[in-house]
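Posting here for the record, re: L-homoserine.
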Amino acid sequence: MSGDEPIKVALLGCGTVGTEVVRLLTDQAGDLTARVGAPVELTGIAVRRPNKHREVPEELLTTDAVALVDSDVDVVVEVIGGIEPARTLLLRALRAGKSVVTANKALLAEHSAELSEAADASGADLYFEAAVAGAIPLLRPLRESLAGDRITRVMGIVNGTTNFILSAMDSTGAGYSETLEEASRLGYAEADPTADVDGYDAASKAAILASLAFHTRVTASDVHREGISAVSAADIAAAKGLGRTVKLLAICERVTDTAQDGSTTESVAVRVHPAMIPRSHPLAGVGGAFNAVFVEADAAGEMMFYGQGAGGAPTASAVLGDLVAVARNRVVSGRGPRESAYAALPVRPMGQTPTRYHLSLDVADRAGVLAQVAAVFAEHDVSIAAVRQQGRVDDASLVIVTHAAPEAALRSTVDKIGGLPVVREVVSVMRVEGEEQ
Ligand code: HSE
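Prediction output follows.
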C-alpha cells in the first residue's frame, strides 16, 4: 500500500465511545495522517437507529453492518459491545484479512481463541487496548514491553463503578444499598448495575489480563467471581480499624508448587472479589471511578498503571491508539505482535488457590474462648498471623488475620467458627491482599 492511498475505516457502533472516536478522527485528521503515513478515512458507521445520531456525519450512517464490513475497508473498529452481532461481524472482517480494533471485553473474554485464529489465518491485526481499563496503556505493556520478562502477578482495580461505591462507603461509613443509590443518582452506576456490582465486568477484564500476562488462554468462566453487594458498613469499619481499605480486586497470579523431590509445577489463579488492602498500598489511594493495575514481574519488579478506566473520550483514546498502530502496520504491509498462548498453564480452581482471611468476631469473654477458636484454625491447618482482642462489658471483639492457606480450608474454618457456641456474631469476613504472606 502506498502512502497516498487512504486507510479506510469502518466503525461498528456509535454510542458514547463511537461518537468520541468519530470526533477524534475528524479533529486530528492531519496529525493522524502524519503519524500513520497515510490518510485515515472513515467510510461508514453502522448503527441500529440512524436518526439517533445527529452528532456524526449523516452520510456515513448505515444500518447494514454486514455490507459495511464487506465493503472496501482496511480496518474495522467495533464499539458495539456484547457477544452478538459483534462476534459474527469481527470474524467476518478478520477472515477477509481486515484488521480489527475492538473495545469489547465480554467478546474477548469468551471468544479470543476463534478471533485470534481468524486473525492468524488471514494475517490481520487484532488489537483491543480499550477493552481493559479504558484509557490506561496496559495491554500493550503486558503484551510488548514486558514480553522479555516473567510476570508473576497482576492485581488491579478495573471497574470504576464499584470503586466509586467502595470509596464512598469508606469515606462516609454508609452501607452498600444507599451508596449504590447515590452512585446511580450521580450517573456513576448504570440503570442495571449487575455487570459492574456482581463482578462480571471485572471478571472479563481479569481473563484478558491473565491471558496476556501468562501466555495462557483464560476465559471469563475460568475466573472466580464475587461482587460487592455483600460488603457491609461493618466490613469497611473493620478494615479501617486495621489500617486497611476495601477494594474490588481482579487478581491474576502465577502459582508455583514445589514437590518433595524439588520439581515445580506452575498454574494460574484468576479471581475477582472484594479484599482488604493496607491503606499504604498504592492501590488504596485509587479513589472514585478511577482504575489502576499493579503488575509484578521478575526482572522489572513492581509497576502501577493508573488512569480513567471508562467514559467516551478516555476509551476512544485507547481505540485511536490501536487504530494508528494497525493503520501503520497496513502502510508497511506488516502485522503487529499477535496473541501468544504457548505456555498453556492450567487454571487452578479457587478452592486450591492460596488466600488470606481477616475475621472479626464478637465472642464471649471468658477462659478458653480463644483456645476454642484457635483450635478450629489448627484443625484445618490454617496458620494465624495476628490476633487482636478488645474486651467490652460482657463480651469481646476478636480480630484474626491468617497466613496464606488454600481457600477451601479457610472457608471451612470460617464456617465452623461461625457455629461455635462461644461466637456470638461473625461481624466481618474478608480476604486480605497486598501484604507479606
Ligand atoms: N462499567 C465499567 C466500569 C466500564 O464501571 O468501570 C466499562 O468497562
